[in-house]
Design goal:
two-stranded antiparallel ribbon; alpha/beta
Length: 242
């Protein structure tokens, strides 16, 4: 007999979940997890980049954890999460120390290389807060990356020139900016993004906050990720039959 579960909160839907390690070009080992759809090939792959580790960000930051818990089953997506250098989570501790968004370019390279070596399709970068800086600064170096979804970008470390380099690259850029962001509000951010990358897909989320707390905001973020990467999977169901 099947069982229906409501898709909300900490629910974890079926997926193949594998602890993985990434080895960087500067010889650090990063810990992570790959979640893929059960018994099938994913339609696309999310390489997630977590918020600032010096302020509590890690691979289990709730939006990324819920993406891995839900989207393999609901949207046929593979989800790669990992701790950047020096970051700790229940999965373990990655080697090295925080690199201020500079040496993390090696962490991103290791993740993209892992996806490529596994033959996982259509990689997208999903960065949140600090993770958006890494994506903006270094995502263009990887030809196989189709695009980026940027959640709450603070634009602290990424320069205007690095942002403008995405214009005309052929890679999509989707930006979710919460109305009540603590660092960069939509009215300030939109002219910067559109001025640098006119083709940007900019989404102002009414009532949203930097940390996307609550089921309504979680569902909005996951829906927009899927709309960018695999829109055929929409709408995301609110109930799942086990």
């Amino acid at each position: 007999m099947s069982e229906a579960v409501e898709v909300r909160g900490a629910v974890v839907l079926p997926a193949e979940r594998e602890p993985i390690e990434l080895v960087t070009l500067d010889r650090l080992t990063l810990v992570g997890e790959l979640a893929t759809p059960v018994g099938g090939h994913p339609a696309a792959t999310l390489i997630t980049l977590h918020p600032l580790p010096t302020h509590g960000g890690f691979m289990d930051s709730h939006i990324l954890r819920k993406a891995a818990a839900r989207l393999p089953a609901l949207a046929d997506l593979a989800v790669l999460r990992f701790n950047t250098r020096g970051t700790k989570s229940p999965r373990g501790v990655s080697d090295g120390e925080f690199g201020e968004g500079v040496t993390e370019r090696f962490d991103l390279e290791a993740a993209v290389r892992f996806v490529r070596d596994r033959g996982l399709p259509r990689p997208w970068l999903v960065g949140w807060s600090f993770g958006t800086e890494v994506a903006i600064k270094y995502g263009l170096a990887h030809d196989d990356v189709e695009g980026v979804v940027l959640l709450s970008p603070p634009l602290h470390r990424a320069t205007r020139d690095e942002l403008a380099a995405w214009h005309g690259s052929g890679k999509r850029m989707v930006v979710l900016l919460p109305e009540l962001d603590d660092f960069l509000k939509p009215a300030e951010a939109e002219p910067v993004f559109r001025g640098a990358v006119p083709e940007v897909e900019f989404i102002d989320v009414p009532g949203g906050k930097h940390l996307w707390v609550g089921e309504t905001q979680t569902r909005t973020v996951l829906t927009e990720i899927v709309r960018a990467v695999n829109p055929a999977a929409l709408p995301l169901p609110e109930v799942y039959e086990l």
